[in-house]
Amino acid sequence: MMSLDPRTPVIVGVGQQLQRIDNPLEALAPVPFIANAIREATKDAGLSSVPNADSIRVVSFLSWRYRDPARYIAEELGITTRETVASSMGGNSTQSLINATALEIQSGDFDVVILCGGETSRTRKRARAAEIELPWPVVPEDLKPTRIMGEELVMNHEYELSRRIVAPIQIYPIFETAIRAASGRSVAEHNQHLGKLWSNFSKVAEANPYAWIRKSMTPEEIITTGPRNRMIGLPYTKVMNSNNDVDQSAAIIMCSVAAAERMGISKDKWVFPIAGTDCHEHKYVSERDTFADTPAVKLGGKMALDLAETSINDIDIVDLYSCFPSAVQLGAASLGLSTDRQLTRTGGLSFAGGPWNNYVMHAVATVVGELRARPGEKGLVWGNGGYATKHAFGVYSTTPPTNGFKHAYPQDQIDALPRRTVVDIGTSEGPATIEGYTVMHDRDGNPERAIAPCLLPNGNRAWGISDDTDTVNAMCEGEWVGRAVRLDATGTLLIK
To answer: Is the domain of 439 the same as that of 302?
Structure first.
């Protein structure tokens, strides 16, 4: 290995944990559960004890409210830290934290940093169902971390909120129908495409010891509805949705090369962040130019690769964010990757598990292990938050960067891209064209509500909604993207 700047940032330890304890009272709370992942990362680094860290950075979790979880994690481990950090919300958070941490280690601000996160959503759900009060700590309201890292974005436009369009399970299926129409595939052909894509992800999860569901599924099993695989938001069956009801935690130990050498960590454990970028699309989906493209992924991904002095064709190991199939397809198309290629190293959020904001911690941990096994190869990780909104990219290798870690934030270029004007009910009455849609189903699998962004003759966008039984049933058959419809004065979608 060439002579390295002692400030070069390097990943030296990774750890992953899962727990399947049926009695909620016997399950670990988030803090000790995350602490166990840090202990695993410590062992992975070849260290006999958890190092004191300049900073402990926790990906914000939803299973319990600690307010400053890093403080409690430090106490649980019996270590000291200069600062405690919590991330902003979003699936991009881990990669964004890694990018920021690499820059701060490189600048000399920090020497040893622990990144970690986890969820105990399965335990919380079981406790609520059994009406069990968990004996987990109640933390003072005024407790705060030293700082919050990451970009918080208001995700929903006021016109979306007024139409009760508020959740990823409503938006990502709309991306999917827009992608389908743009591909030229029929509904049946596209369903087969989705089945094959997600079946391939399930096969990867089957071989992953840290995956939540280690059972591969055939394409037909993926796309066929039934009691255990009901339709959620057309065209997504349950298994195509992120699986958030999991107990999973993960941790990463990052440090400077100088610190790694001081702690005696073997060089065969070292994996370098080479380059990274952070950016976001126009923050409201209502204002994006199209539902079938993610220009920020194109710009952010290419810039990360350029900074790493490589190309997508030279990337050996890829993990794309996979909360829904549309996210994978948008990411792959924007990065110039075929969906026939292996695009996950874990099995993805449906099968490996989707611990809310912390999936990417597991992805990076897995990629680090694979890079160690195949020295000299390059890995690319993409994290995504919101509605394919917030993006973070990281390029990794056991070969160190030639001139240190590089990072960019190409937001000015993205902000200059075209955007739509969105209009509310009362100003959208008249003819319109459907540009994407979904039909949300109830818990019994019955069509319940149609949601469709529509283009008006002047190019503006409006949201069409229908709860009419005949309409929602009709929209479950055939292709509706590109169809001429009408919106009435209440914003109701009229298909006749």
So the answer is: no
The total of other beta-carbon atoms located within 10 Å of residue 245's CB is 16
Closest by Cα among 386, 172, 394, 406 to 283: 386
CATH number of the domain at 469, please.
2.40.50.840
Q: What is the CA radius of gyration of the chain?
A: 23
The string of DSSP letters for 26-47 reads GSPPHHHHHHHHHHHHHHHTT-
Joined together, the tokens standing for residue 422 give 């969105």
The Cα 493–Cα 496 span in angstroms is 9
d(CA 106, CA 54): 14
CATH of the domain at 46: 3.40.47.10
Rounded to an integer, what distance in angstroms lies between the CA atom of residue 182 and that of residue 178? 6
CB 91 within 8 A of CB 381: no
- Residue 452's domain comprises 430-494
Structure tokens, 483: 């169809």
Q: Are 397 and 443 in a shared domain?
A: no
| Among 372, 390, 415, residue at a domain's last position | 415
Number of domain units in the chain: 2
pTM of the model: 0.97
The per-residue pLDDT string of the chain (496 residues; one tens digit each, 9 = 90 and over) reads: 458 999 999 999 999 999 999 999 999 999 999 999 999 999 999 999 999 999 999 999 999 999 899 999 999 999 999 999 999 999 999 999 999 999 999 999 999 999 999 999 999 999 999 999 999 998 888 899 999 999 888 889 999 999 999 999 999 999 999 999 999 999 999 999 999 999 999 999 999 999 999 999 999 999 999 999 999 999 999 999 999 999 999 999 999 999 999 999 999 999 999 999 999 999 999 999 999 999 999 999 999 999 999 999 999 999 999 999 999 999 999 999 999 999 999 999 999 999 999 999 999 999 999 999 999 999 999 999 999 999 999 999 999 999 999 999 999 999 999 999 999 998 999 999 999 999 999 999 999 999 999 999 999 999 999 999 999 999 999 999 999 999 999 999 999 8
- Residue 268 CB-density burial (10 A; 0-12 exposed, 13-18 middle, 19+ buried): exposed
Do 356 and 438 lie in one domain? The reply is no
Angle at CA 273, nearest 5°, toward 151 and 82?
60
Sequence-distant (6+) residues with CB within 8 A of 7 are 105, 106, 107, 108, 256, 257, 258, 404
Q: Are 13 and 269 in contact (CB under 8 A)?
A: yes
- 242, 389, 390, 445, 490 from 153: Cα distances, Å: 21, 9, 9, 33, 29
The residue out of 390, 415, 440 marking a domain boundary is: 415
